[in-house]
Design a protein that fits this description.
GO molecular function: magnesium protoporphyrin IX methyltransferase activity
GO biological process, one term: methylation
Order of helices and strands: EEHHHHHHEHEHEEHEHHEE
Radius of gyration: 19 Å
Keywords: Methyltransferase, S-adenosyl-L-methionine, Transferase
Pfam families: Methyltransf_31 (PF13847), Mg-por_mtran_C (PF07109)
Protein name: Magnesium protoporphyrin IX methyltransferase
């Protein structure tokens, strides 16, 4: 699973950092130990945090929102109640965040993300950009995984596998993959894609990759022990209070390393997310939560883990922090 776009107006924010860009869409570089890699100059559009339809902003509106007006905007947003829509969603499905996520990705969200994760041309500009961002996250996660050598025979749990965008490449690398997702629809699609890509067209001389084991499970229900646990673009659906427990549980399943991606919480990202929540539109998405890198790191430290590698992936409508943690 991942996160989607709410406002697609090209409102640019520029940040300047001393280090060179971390990732390339075509050839992701290797990540270095305990080094935070950030782009020199990155232009951010309003980020992808719900599937709502955006209003159109003209040049005057952009000028008002830009620059020093961000502080004033923050004050206005502080008077709004973004939790109201979240509470309504939970009531509608008779549960909490977990039930909202399950309901969404088994129904309208499944159709939306099946297109985004797939190869169809039936996507808009924002969805195509999100597809690129997610694929970059997958590519760089695989780079992290293969830095230490071959994955042949390595047990990996892909927690929140979606339609198999990570599980299938890992199986091709020879990993023994357990792929899980809270959505039965997503798991069924992932299994279908795996059968088509891993088994179809194989001749008798080439050994077929080991098919991933697909299971319908939420993060808190996962069990077993694995060399590596990977959880990409899932934590955005849960608040930090829930994420802390999920991170601890995932770490308890991993023997050697844990790879996580999450939407980073910064001042600008938080304000822009709040803007998106002012315009929910007719399309209902899951609730979106940003997480600070410091909070994620503290959650790992509490269970005896430390961040070993870290990087930032951004496109115009997608952003994610990617970290690899190991036992301290």
């Amino acid at each position: 699973m991942a996160f989607s776009a709410s406002l697609s107006s090209p409102l640019g924010f520029h940040t300047h950092h001393p280090n060179p860009p971390a990732f390339s869409p075509k050839a992701p570089p290797k990540l270095t130990t305990t080094t935070t890699i950030r782009p020199i100059t990155t232009t951010f559009a309003i980020p992808p945090l719900s599937s709502a339809t955006a209003p159109t902003f003209d040049g005057t509106t952009l000028a008002v929102i830009g620059g020093s007006s961000v502080a004033a905007l923050a004050a206005v947003l502080s008077l709004t109640d973004p939790e109201r829509r979240r509470r309504i969603q939970a009531v509608e499905v008779g549960g909490d965040d977990k039930e909202v996520v399950r309901e969404y990705f088994n129904n309208s969200g499944f159709q939306r993300w099946k297109k985004i994760y797939g190869e169809t041309d039936d996507v808009n500009r924002v969805q195509k950009d999100i597809r690129l961002g997610h694929s970059k996250t997958v590519e760089n996660a695989i780079t992290m995984l293969t830095d230490d050598g071959s994955l042949r025979g390595v047990t990996v749990c892909d927690a929140g596998c979606g339609t198999g965008s990570l599980s299938i490449p890992l199986a091709k690398e020879g990993a023994i993959v357990t792929a899980t997702d809270i959505s039965a629809a997503m798991v069924a699609e992932a299994q279908k894609q795996a059968e088509e890509q891993l088994l179809a067209g194989k001749d008798d001389l080439s050994p077929a990759p080991v098919m991933p084991k697909f299971e319908v499970k939420d993060l808190e229900s996962l069990d077993g022990k694995y060399h590596t646990v990977v959880c990409l673009d899932v934590l955005i659906h849960y608040p930090q209070s829930k994420a802390d427990g999920m991170i601890a549980h995932l770490a308890s399943l991993a023997e050697n390393r844990l790879i996580l991606s999450f939407a980073p919480k910064t001042f600008y990202y938080d304000i822009l997310k709040r803007i998106g929540e002012l315009f929910p539109g007719p399309s209902k998405a899951t609730r979106a939560y940003l997480h600070s890198e410091a909070d994620v790191e503290r959650a790992l430290q509490k269970v005896g883990w430390k961040i070993n590698k870290r990087g930032l992936i951004t496109t115009q409508f997608y952003f994610a922090k990617l970290v690899e943690a190991v036992p301290a």
